[in-house]
Amino acid sequence: TSTDFWLRRARREARAEMADASPHGSLSAGLSATAAEVLRRRAESLAAEAVDEESGDSVAILLFRLADEWYAVNVGDVREIYQEYSITPIPCVPDFILGVVNIRGEIISVTDVAKLTGLGELGFTDGNAPAIVVQNEHCTTAMVVDEIGDIAEIPREGIEPPLSVIDKAQAEFVAGSVHYGDQMIGLLNTDRILEP
Q1: What is the pLDDT of residues 85-107, one digit of tens each?
Q2: pTM for this model (two decimals)
Q3: For 7, which of 33, 62, 76, 170 is 20 to 30 Å away at the CA?
C-alpha cells in the first residue's frame, strides 16, 4: 500500500541521516519506540500527501536537460538526485549502461538515458554529470543527465500525447509532452526506462 511505501522510504531516509550523523558511520541495532512512532506518523503524512497529489488536478515534474533539449520525469518516480559518485564499469552490458554505483551500500546501475532512448547525446565530458535516481517497485537506476532543472507543477489535463515527429523507437520512452513556459517538454516514461 501507499502507506507501506512511504514508511519504508521514511525509515530508509532516517537510517541514512543517522548513519551520516554517526561519528563511526554505523547505526544502532534498532530504532527506539519514539523514533518508530515518529517514522510511522511521517509515513502516514507522506502517504496522505501522495494521495492528495494523485487525486488533484496537477502533477509535479522534475525538469532536466539532455544536450539541448529539456525533458521531465514525474517527481513521484524520483528517489533522489546524486552528484558525486564513482562509476564502476561492468563488462558485457548494453552500451547505455555506464556501470554501477554504490549509494549508501546499495548497488545501482547507471544509465545513459540519452543513449537508451535515442533522444540525443549527453554533453558532459569531464567529471560527473548529475544523476537522477528513479525507481518503481521492480527496479532502480541512476539516470545520467546534463543538467537538473526545476520542479514544476503542471495541470494534469495539460499533458498531451507525445509529439508525432519523434521516432517510433523513441516514442515508447516518452509518456507525453507538456508546455512549460515557452518550451515543449517531453515527459519520460520511467516505467519503460526501468524495464529489465
Answers
A1: 888 999 999 988 989 999 888 99
A2: 0.66
A3: 62
